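Appendix C reproduces, verbatim, an entry submitted by the partner laboratory led by Prof. M.T., so that reviewers can inspect both the input and the predicted structure.
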Amino acid sequence: MSEVYADRRARLRDRCAAAGSPAALVSRPANVRYLAGGSPPGAVLLVGAGDDVLLCPRAPTGDPADGRPDESLRTAVLPASGGDPAVAAVDVARKAGADALAVEEHHLTVARHRAMGSVAPRLRLADLGGAVEQLRIVKDEDEITCLRIAAEIADQALGELLESILVGRTERHLALELERRLVDHGADGAAFPTSVATGPNAGLAAHRPTDRRVEEGDFLSVCLGANYRGYRCEIGRTFVIGTTPADWQIELYDLVFAAQRAGREALSPGTEFREVDRAARQLLDAAGHGGALAPRLGHGVGLEIDEDPQLAPASMGKLDACVPVTVEPGVHLPGRGGVRIDDTLVVRQEADGGPELLTITTKELLAL
């Protein structure tokens, strides 16, 4: 893996050099982990000013949740007296003779940026922008393997929950049980706070579980994800509790399922982000539910649960192969509940079988 991280840093170094900065300082934790293999708390990565170096406020503990830093990468631990690793990195770049340093302004506070500038007033601080985030969009097969395992873990946790007795249990209790099952099956933890929504809450995006108890006839919508070696996926499903679904539940479910399928089928290299969103949105618009759809159909996933690309009406750009994304339409009817269906997929060429579905729990409308 050392070669993988070295190659990623080389690509960043080339981008910076083309923009007139011989060195870059990366401070956003997910970006540090992408380039260095691990991101100990508070660490920053200096690339291009002599040897690449990972600067840490304290010695790495080896916690698996932080990843494992590339063994070929030099690690520098600040003295016990402390100090800001980003400020220390600026001083290292100055001493190495750099005349400009690209920094992640979108991740820095004003105070931190000023402190960095005061250490080396003659060193020009340029904006690195989202250069690392752009490198992260297309995943290599090792990254996709981690996502695939994360999806398998989430499927297992959800499948076990569906085999248990649900009536009478609270949303909060079910969410906690799901997160425990994720860890039991090998996840580092939940990819994001698990959402369990019942009855009138069902179908709400990012619903925070309450003490409402599951009742017969409820819609139950669940959204969860696993974090495996830093890579995060998500899955969302909707079910009916304890009885044959009502006609309105079947009709609404079939509509959201059709929209989700249209979005999944639109995932191919070269397709515009907004066209994927439109494929699903137009079906809900035609049925009078367009206003109930979230501002976007889905988004990229990886070291963060919400990455580029954004599958939204105003998003510019086109899909590439080997880009993992979610497709997650939903409709919520106030006072009645609703449906959300969410999958994680990897964009693939048609010759390779088309989009690869990572989350495989059934999307049939089950009565549990």
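The chain has a mean pLDDT of 95. Additional entries are available on request from the coordinating office.
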